[in-house]
Amino acid sequence: MGSVFSKEIARDKASEFMQIFGRMGTCCCSQGYIIAIYPSRLECSKGKRKRKKIDVHDHTGCFSSSGRRSSTDGETAKFQPPPKPVIIDKQRQKEERRYLSPEFIPPRGRTDPLKFYIERKDMIQRRKVFNIPEFYVGSVLAVTTADPYADGKTNRFVGICIQRGGKGLGATFVLRNVIEDQGVEICYELYSPRIQEIKVLKLEKRLDDNLMYLRDALPEYSTFDVRMKPKPWSKRWERPKYNIKGIKFELPEKKMKAAEKWSQPWLEFDMLREYDTSKIEEKIWKEINEELKK
């Protein structure tokens, strides 16, 4: 096309394009001009400063470049707002998330997924009749097992968990304790039918995968009282933000009073608290209002 571009030339070119493309609309640019070709009309406008909205036709209606749907008669349809977003409560998700014992996760080089699937079924059936609590490497446990040669036909051992291993029904954990200056380690099978009770005396998690270095450490790091019982709730649990219900604190009155001081432990180090006059002002305002009402 030449530098001079008139509407007559545009109509001639439009008729040629209509024969080629049929009912489809298209656009061509030349010398800064934009041509919009439609089945019904032709629009030609200067495209350097102001550009008209180009409509795209379909079988159901028209959509303009602004995104608003228009009917075939030229009337704009009613605006339909987008659907409301689904709000996911992340706090509730955290509450529903439970601890997954590591033996449920199959190893990397697994070759028979059916085997681990069947084992998981058996593990779930075992957990329905036997409570296996949450514990980690570094937790202090008390394990009661059936022993036909012991008094009362049961044996109880207290120790720190230094290792967890195995997958599926072959999951094991090792407890260590120093008894009469002699280190004792017992390896238990987690899903063994001989185990009658697993009780967590101290729930603790270490950064190390295992605590085998306790064998070379001082005995005091592996020594635990055989008659050890779980400690009562510490003073931090008396803070009102936890709002614990249904738990009886078995602490003496003296310790409970000391625990109440720790409901807000940051107040002891709050240097600006003595400059805060909001409580004093509230008390004075209340006194003034009572006097004025008389």
From the spread of the alpha carbons, the general shape counts as: flat
Q: For the report, how would you describe the main beta sheet?
A: 5 strands, antiparallel
Percent helix range: 10-25%
Sequence of strands across the biggest β-sheet: 10-9-8-7-11
Structural class: alpha+beta
Radius of gyration: 39 Å
Write out key terms for the chains shown.
single chain; 294 residues; alpha+beta; three-stranded antiparallel β-sheet; 11 strands; 21% helix
Describe this structure in words.
This protein has 294 residues and is of the alpha+beta class. It is built from 5 helices and 11 strands, in the order H-E-E-E-E-E-E-H-H-E-E-E-E-E-H-H. It has helices spanning 7-21, 90-96, 113-129, 253-260, 278-293, and strands at 26-30, 33-37, 42-46, 56-57, 62-63, 69-70, 140-146, 154-165, 172-179, 182-189, 195-202. Strands 10-9-8-7-11 form a 5-stranded antiparallel sheet, with no helix packed on it. Strand 2 (33-37) and strand 3 (42-46) form a beta hairpin. The protein is flat.
Structural topology:
Elements: H1 7-21, E1 26-30, E2 33-37, E3 42-46, E4 56-57, E5 62-63, E6 69-70, H2 90-96, H3 113-129, E7 140-146, E8 154-165, E9 172-179, E10 182-189, E11 195-202, H4 253-260, H5 278-293
Antiparallel strand pairs: 1-2, 2-3, 4-5, 5-6, 7-8, 7-11, 8-9, 9-10
Explain briefly what this protein structure is.
This protein is an alpha+beta fold.
